[in-house]
Specification:
By secondary structure, the chain is α+β, with helices and mostly antiparallel strands. The protein is built from 9 helices and 9 strands. The strands form 2 sheets. Strands 3-4-5-2-1-9-8 form a 7-stranded mixed β-sheet, sandwiched between helices. Strand 8 and strand 9 form a beta hairpin. The radius of gyration is 26 Å and the shape is globular.
């Protein structure tokens, strides 16, 4: 799909989504970048909560970003001339959609796929997501496991090229998690001190009884 619109300004796009209260999880190359991948992405991809109220908020954000549909073999100027009403009903009936915005290309996904092509809905992605602090916003980012699974299933050239670095990030995360689980737990000094104090008190009481 050719693209003739503005370049991606990920910070601005995410700031507008967050400001309008949209519930979403960042996926794809943008998510990989937040997790430490060096490979650049030219568009933003998100899976959104499909509840109607959230789609209404998403529509508000899209209108603020002057969004227009991104259509194959159609220029940005031609797409802007399409008689499209961007509202919650339109987003509900459309499902996944691709947009050009004044902050760059933006893909709205209704779900993600795992390695077998099984649908992974928003709430499941959210349960495994990471919370990331950006420049003026806080967002949920899909886990590296979910990103790898989706790219493995998609199996496009750009996905295959991105996988080696993502697998390295996954290996580092698992190694760090294993080290954290195997680390010795700190001694509960407070309880130990209380135990010593109790024993000392008992000895004092016993001594007083003998003296009496």
């Amino acid at each position: 799909m050719s693209y003739s619109g503005p370049p991606l300004d990920l910070n601005r796009l995410l700031q507008v989504l967050v400001k309008n209260g949209v519930d979403f999880v960042v996926i794809g190359g943008s998510a990989a970048g937040f997790l430490g991948a060096s490979r650049l992405t030219e568009d933003a991809d998100c899976v959104v909560n499909r509840e109607r109220a959230n789609l209404d908020r998403l529509a508000t954000a899209l209108r603020e970003l002057h969004a227009r549909l991104r259509v194959a073999r159609m220029s940005d100027e031609e797409a802007q001339a399409l008689p499209i009403v961007v509202d919650g009903l339109m987003l509900e009936t459309t499902g996944s959609s691709t947009w050009t915005t004044n902050a760059g290309p933006f893909d709205v996904m209704s779900d993600l796929k795992d390695v077998r092509g099984t649908t992974v809905p928003y709430h499941e992605l959210l349960s495994r997501s990471l919370v990331v602090q950006g420049e003026g916003f806080v967002v949920h980012v899909a886990s590296v496991d979910d990103i790898i699974a989706a790219k493995t299933f998609a199996n496009r050239e750009k996905d295959r090229e991105a996988l080696p670095e993502l697998l390295e990030i996954q290996a580092r995360e698992r190694s760090a998690s294993a080290q954290s689980e195997s680390a010795p737990r700190p001694v509960e000094l407070t309880k130990h001190v209380d135990s010593q104090r109790s024993t000392a008190d008992e000895l004092d009481e016993s001594r007083e009884e003998r003296e009496f």
